[in-house]
Amino acid sequence: MESKKNTISVLMLPWLAHGHISPFLELAKKLTNRNFHIYMCSTPVNLISIKKSVRKKYSQSIELVEIHLPSLPNLPPHYHTTNGLPPHLMNTLKTAFEMAAPIFSKILQTLKPDLVIYDYNQPWAADSASSMNIPAVQLLTFGAAVVSLAIHMSEDTEEKFPFPEIYLREYEMRSLKEAINESAGNKFPFDEALKRSRDIILVKTSRDFEGKYMDYLSTLVSKRIVPVGSLVQESIDRDDYEEITQWLDKKEKYSTVFVSFGTEYFLSNEQIHAVAQGLELSKVNFIWVIRFPQGETINIRDALPEGFLERVGESGMVMEGWAPQATILQHKSIGGFVSHCGWSSFMESMKFGVPIIAMPMHIDQPMNARLVEYIGMGVEAVRDENGKLQSKEIEKVIRKVVVEESGEAVKEKARELSEKMNINGDEEIDGVVEELMALCSNK
């Protein structure tokens, strides 16, 4: 512990989702290389999942700190994560996390960090820190375009959003309003969490492609917006997934798509069939990860159209649960990512130069899909007017990006953005370090 005396200690509290914990952890790793000591705070079930990532290299500088949520009906400890959580329990998890505020305060009193970095829905974490004169800063794991549109829409103004390329279709607007109305107690702590961030807001993005949205967001919230780069997870050891890499090695360069819709969204039976038919019609190679909520015993073969696995044969690999996404996306045979456009997946695609076949599902994903098309690194598979996936449209867009000559511009743009992101990453982290050190010295 003596070595920590001259370092800045930071307690990080991400939301209980892999798509939030992973970028917080990647930022933690980058900060430890610049003389910061990190306390990563989450529930035991989430910390188990990241222990492997905190290898010996980080074991002295990143400490895992457990926060135990209060007991609530239908929410045993293995449900203290969004990974595999049945959708009807999401609001219960949010409530339990908020109820853990007094427990979080005790953790702060014990550890006495110099700074707290908290997530989008935790104004209570910032309040606890402020009560002890500890500066608290928000890290947004969403893009600046999405956040600025959300704030603009929430304000009572007749002015149009200044960037018409980012918009919601009618069925997407209905879905978003339903999600907001169903949030626990009809409270939406997003605005409050933004207000409590001290002077700056960290955003997982880059000025290379979101500069104008960052500037507008800064105007809306009256705080400086500090980009932290892609925060993409390091690749998993390839030896652990030899079967996947051997299968990919047999495929031609850029001939295969990776298909995944994130850890929090579960396709309906109808959606699974639409995606399966689109993949089969496209006649491209694919790796498809399908997930089901915890507790549901569904056989993948039964969920897919009858005879699908036999018909696609060696051109398709279907997996259940989880796959090493970063490892797969970096493989030379991958020519496209059929993605829900969650922000972490968006950033991984960009970092590895893989064009996106956009199939957004909910919340911020439709707006991310619009951004994908606007910056030219992907094409959206548009749904019908009722919001239903169309297998023929999925086929068309996959072939356009992966097979046809018209996809060359998209591939080139993805590679160009990847090069920029990888060149500018260190500069962005240096800027973050400078801002955080200034906050700690002024507290």
Automatic annotation (TrEMBL):
Its EC number is 2.4.1.-. Signal peptide: none annotated. Keywords: Glycosyltransferase, Transferase. It is an enzyme of class 2 (transferase). Residues 7-219 form the Glycosyltransferase N-terminal domain. Pfam families: Glyco_transf_N (PF26168), UDPGT (PF00201). CDD domains: GT1_Gtf-like. One of its GO terms (biological process) is glycoside biosynthetic process. Gene3D superfamilies: Glycogen Phosphorylase B. GO terms for molecular function: UDP-glycosyltransferase activity. Belongs to the UDP-glycosyltransferase family. This is Glycosyltransferase. It comes from Anisodus tanguticus.
